[in-house]
Design a protein that fits this description.
single chain, 97 residues, Alpha-Beta Plaits, 4 strands, 31% helix
């Protein structure tokens, strides 16, 4: 059985065209949490594919994409994410891809 894990994928891309391509690519693979932040649940194959796809889109000396492993998907995120300001309901936001 393949283990799915929670990831935060965040990006800092100044070029509109590349930023839009990254957004469009992530939109179908996770939940858009904030402007340049997605929550994704991925297995190892999906993570490798996402890395490859994003690497093909970005400019490697101008852009930055961070993939942060938050642990196994069977563990709830609500115990590990602190939200200041507007409420963010983790349980209703995470999408299993």
């Amino acid at each position: 059985m393949t283990t799915r894990r929670h990831y935060i994928v965040s990006y800092d891309i100044s070029d509109d065209k590349r930023r839009n391509k990254v957004f469009d690519h992530l939109e179908g693979r996770g939940d858009h949490a904030q402007f340049s932040v997605f929550f994704c649940e991925l297995n190892p194959r999906e993570l490798a594919q996402l890395r490859s796809d994003l690497a093909a889109i970005i400019h490697h000396t101008q852009d930055q994409v961070l993939l942060v492993d938050l642990g196994p998907a069977h563990n709830p995120l609500d115990g590990g994410i602190e939200c200041l300001g507007k409420t963010f309901d983790v349980r209703s936001k995470v999408i299993v891809v």
